[in-house]
Amino acid sequence: MSSNLRSWIICGVLLLVLACAVFFLPPFLYLGAAFFAFSIGNAELRKGSGQTAYMPRPAYEPPSNLNRPSTQSAANAHVELPERTMPENIPADLKCPSCGASIKPTDKVCAFCGSTLQPLIELPEPAKLGALEIGKTVRVTHPHKGEQSYKVRGRLLYTELWQASSGPTVPWTPTGNYYAGFALEPNAYLLNWQDRFYILEERRALTDMDINRDFLPYAKQFAQSNQTARVEFSYAGGRWLMVDIGRFAIEFEDGEGLHLHKGAIGRFIHATSSNPSTSSGQAALVIDDFQSGGSGGQDTLWRGFQVKETDIIF
Ligand SMILES: [Zn+2]
Predict the structure, then answer these.
(1) CB of 172 within 8 A of CB of 82?
(2) What separation in Å is there between the alpha carbon of 102 and the centre of ligand 1?
(3) Per-residue model confidence as pLDDT tens digits over 14-28
(4) Residue 240 has pLDDT above 70, yes or no
(5) Distance (Å, rounded) from C-alpha 293 to C-alpha 28?
(6) 52-61 pLDDT per residue, tens
């Protein structure tokens, strides 16, 4: 006889006994009988068909508190960004009230006469490189090519995101840190993240399959160590070391030549060459992984070099 059927029969008998007892027994005896019946039923549930309800979670299932950025689907992340009030229409031909030169809606100082302006759009200041503006020339000491001169064509403002506690339902919100990225001419991208600076030169599109195969297992391993483990991986003939993983939103875009747009929300992986002693310099990979469909950007791999803050002069 199956244990399931046996449990039903026991249950039916107990109910019948209780129903009879209601009519024949005094209340206090009835209560005692009810407890007795309950204890039999409960014991039956524990050992019998109710077993699955008490089965512990299988050990191979990932514990939910390790559900860090890289283990989560980019599409599933719940991001809460504050409303930033933008003027209804921004005039295309803004002029400096002092000298009449063309100015941008975000300018705080006129680039031509130096007078203080009231910007139409109030943007948060990036942690670093806040004074590097579109049109300026920036010199970067490149680990291979020596000092290079670039012109700034476009600027991206990144909002750093975090989770107060891990888990798929916990929203990602701004940390209050903002970082800047610059589209340069000749073609390169200058990126600051926390205390790291990258001059990135090669960009290519990635598919979700590429990311899942080449980077995600290592990003997961790194996330599960709370970004403390030394996680190395092979990619494109080199050995790489996980440096940072996280999530961002593009707060603002300005100028030309940009590969991302305002509102894009993605996660990143930063890695550097795991043997920096070689002559190749501190080679770096920056992987951007966006939510599929709509508000994101193209999943991208940037290759370039990590440089020091003092290597960037403008
Ligand atoms: Zn002016």
Answers:
(1) no
(2) 8
(3) 555 555 555 555 655
(4) yes
(5) 66
(6) 333 333 333 3
Residue 64 confidence (pLDDT): 42
Q: Is 245 exposed, middle or buried, given 0-12, 13-18 or 19+ CB atoms closer than 10 A?
A: buried
Question: 109 C-alpha to center of ligand 1: Å?
Answer: 8
Cα 136 to middle of ligand 1, angstroms: 16
| Tokens standing for residue 289 | 């992984």
Give residue-wise pLDDT tens across range 229-238: 999 999 999 9
Please say whether the beta carbons of 163 and 170 come within 8 A: yes
**Cβ of 172: how many Cβ atoms within 10 Å?**
22
The structural domains of the chain, with segments of one domain joined by +, span 3-54, 138-313
How many angstroms separate the alpha carbon of residue 120 from the centre of ligand 1?
Answer: 15
Task: Give the Å distance between the CA of 151 and the centre of ligand 1.
Answer: 22
- For ligand 1, the distance from its centroid to the CA atom of residue 115, given in whole angstroms, is 6
Tell me the C-alpha distance between 49 and 45, whole Å.
6
Query: What's the pTM value of the predicted model, to 2 decimals?
Result: 0.72
Rounded to the nearest whole angstrom, what is the distance from the C-alpha of residue 97 to the centroid of ligand 1? 7
Distance 94 CA to ligand 1 centre (A): 11
50: confidence class by pLDDT, cuts 50, 70, 90:
very low
How confident is the model over 94-135, as pLDDT tens digits? Answer: 899 999 999 888 888 898 999 999 888 888 899 999 999 899
Cα(295) to ligand 1 centroid in Å equals: 36
Ion ligand 1 — residues with CB under 5 Å?
A: 96, 98-99, 101, 110, 112-113
CA–centroid distance, residue 158 to ligand 1 (Å): 28
Can you read off the two tokens belonging to residue 218?
A: 């290592």
**How crowded is residue 167: how many other Cβ atoms within 10 Å of its Cβ?**
13
Q: State yes or no: pLDDT of 30 exceeds 50.
A: yes
